[in-house]
């Protein structure tokens, strides 16, 4: 009886380990937006490897945020540049109709705002509340960011 119990316990532990490993692997690969963001934060070579493996650079999370939007909101300039260089769409919108430009402006990330505008971000795009990048920068008291947007508009 003791041998049976030990074998049963060993099988149960092995099954649990396999299940946990599978769940962790699924978690790591089920969110392509995060995989792209991690790769962009790592290095251009890592990002290219993910793209070569078929990961969509414009993949979204459950709120329709892309890796570019997340990097822009987080203030990660090097990731923003890497994602744009790799072909990320700068004018995609999340479920609140916010673009990477609106998210960066709201957080006051002036350098990222400039990079996004240079890459063709739509300065006039508005979110679901009717606010654009300029109004978000003003509302959140980021005058330098608002000035960069105004200058890009030729105001």
Q: Could you walk me through the main structural features you see in this protein, from its secondary elements to its overall organization?
A:
- There is one protein chain.
- This protein is 65% helix and 0% strand.
- It is mostly helical and 155 residues long.
- It contains 9 helices and no strands.
- About 15% of the residues have low confidence.
- Helix 2 packs across helix 5 and helix 8 packs antiparallel against helix 9.
- The radius of gyration is 21 Å and the shape is globular.
- It folds into 2 domains: 30 residues; 122 residues, Ankyrin repeat-containing domain (Serine Threonine Protein Phosphatase 5, Tetratricopeptide repeat), CATH 1.25.40.20.
pLDDT < 50 runs, ≥5 residues? 6-29
| Biggest pleated-sheet summary | none
Amino-to-carboxy terminus distance? 85 Å
Task: Write the CATH homologous superfamily of the largest domain.
Answer: Ankyrin repeat-containing domain
**DSSP helix fraction:** 55-70%
What is the rounded Rg? Answer: 21 Å
Query: What do we call the CATH topology of the largest domain?
Result: Serine Threonine Protein Phosphatase 5, Tetratricopeptide repeat
Give the beta-strand count.
Answer: 0
**Count of individual helical segments:** 9
- CATH-level-2 architecture of the largest domain: Alpha Horseshoe
Tally of distinct domains: 2
| Structural class by SSE content | mainly alpha
Mean pLDDT rating: 83
What is the name of the CATH class of the largest domain? Mainly Alpha
Q: What amount of the residues lies in strands?
A: under 5%
Basic shape: globular
Order of helices and strands: HHHHHHHHH
